[in-house]
């Protein structure tokens, strides 16, 4: 099959591209490299068709029109940054997504796109199913909810599947500066205290990037119809416990330092993955503790 990945030089997109190439598919990558990096795909760059383009560029039509499927992963993803740059997040995550969906509809191409658990906000029901009311608490989450509204609008006679990724982690991410796992890793490397927002009791559902990739490919290959699906583990870990695991397996004697809670932080996040199991025949294989343990072997 001939697939297009927007944001294919980013963290998740590069893992997805590699998996598709290894499984015999033709892959085209669209990425403006504003947050993605060619080093993420250096080992497969001669096996993919790379296009340094923005998802708002008119010229992406020529790249997309003959593809068999679109994986839309181009996005801005930092919650703190989304408060400082709301218009930029709106432009990329909403208008850019609208452009992708418009082209998908024009050429009738199934599309799987990266939504986010951020659309739920501070939900009362944990674990959270896809039927839970959507009430994002930060500009990033709002842009992802707007993208879902666009998916509903463009999915008449076209399959558009939104995957609500929870907290994704993996080896390439630890050096990227994205998220709490990356920050704790850097703290250990630099022998600086692990900074925790609030009391550290916030709960997160951390899911391994290779598990994410398999769910994403399954969403493309399975006949799911247009839908929104949680992709997490169904388990949680507190931020404080995460910090202590890094300290334990790295052999460090560092201690966490607590600071005020940041604006827009969700207190608890845990996926109900019943629908993913049913529609995708998928479930996660890797635990975060095992991954951290292997990181320091």
Describe this structure in words.
By secondary structure, the chain is α/β, with parallel strands linked by helices. It folds into two domains: 2-167 and 208-231, Rossmann fold (3-Layer(aba) Sandwich); 169-204 and 235-268 and 286-295, Alpha-Beta Complex (UDP-galactose 4-epimerase, domain 1). The chain is 38% helix and 18% strand. It has ten helices and 13 strands. The protein has helices spanning 11-22, 60-64, 79-84, 86-107, 139-154, 179-190, 209-221, 239-250, 274-280, 288-295; strands at 2-6, 26-30, 49-51, 69-72, 111-116, 160-165, 167-169, 194-197, 203-204, 206-208, 227-231, 237-238, 256-259. A seven-stranded parallel beta sheet has the order 3-2-1-4-5-6-11, sandwiched between helices. A two-stranded parallel sheet has the order 7-10. A two-stranded parallel sheet has the order 8-13. Helix 5 links the parallel strand 5 (111-116) and strand 6 (160-165). Helix 1 (11-22) crosses helix 7. The longest helix has 22 residues, at 86-107. The chain is globular. The model has no long low-confidence stretch (mean pLDDT 95).
